[in-house]
Amino acid sequence: MKKIIFTLLLLSVSLFAELTNQYITKNFINTNIPIVDVRTPGEWKETGLLKGAIPIMFFDERGNYDAKHFLKILNQKIDTKKPFALICHSGSRTSMIAPWLSKEFNYKVINLQGGMDYATHTLHIKTIPFK
Fold first, then answer.
1. b/e map of 82-107 (b: 16 or more CB within 10 Å)?
2. Domains of the chain from N-terminus onward
C-alpha cells in the first residue's frame, strides 16, 4: 500500500512540472516573462544581454558548475513560482538545465532554443552591454 501511495505521489508531483521548448521571438522579449541568461561573464561582455535579461552563470568556462549556488541566486532574483525562460549561446546548455529545473523543482521553464546566436544573428535582436 505504501508503494502505491508513494508512486501516486511521485506521479502527481511530475504533473506540475512544465517545460516548454521554443525559439525566441522579438515579441517574447516584450513579455513580462523573465529571461535568465546562463552564459559566462565573458560571453555577456562579448555579445551583451537581451533587454531585461538576468545574468546568472550556470557552467563556468571549464564546464564546472555549482547547482546549489545557481539555485540560490535564481530564487533571489526571480519568482520561480511563475514561468521563466533560460537562454545560453546556442541552446545546448539550456537544453540540459531546463529539464532538470522542471523535473527536480517543478519550475515552469521555457527553454529558448537557438540561444543568443539565433536571437542576434537570425532575428537581429539588439543587445545591451554587460557591465
1. ebbbbbbbebebbeebbeebbeeebb
2. 16-128 (3.40.250.10)
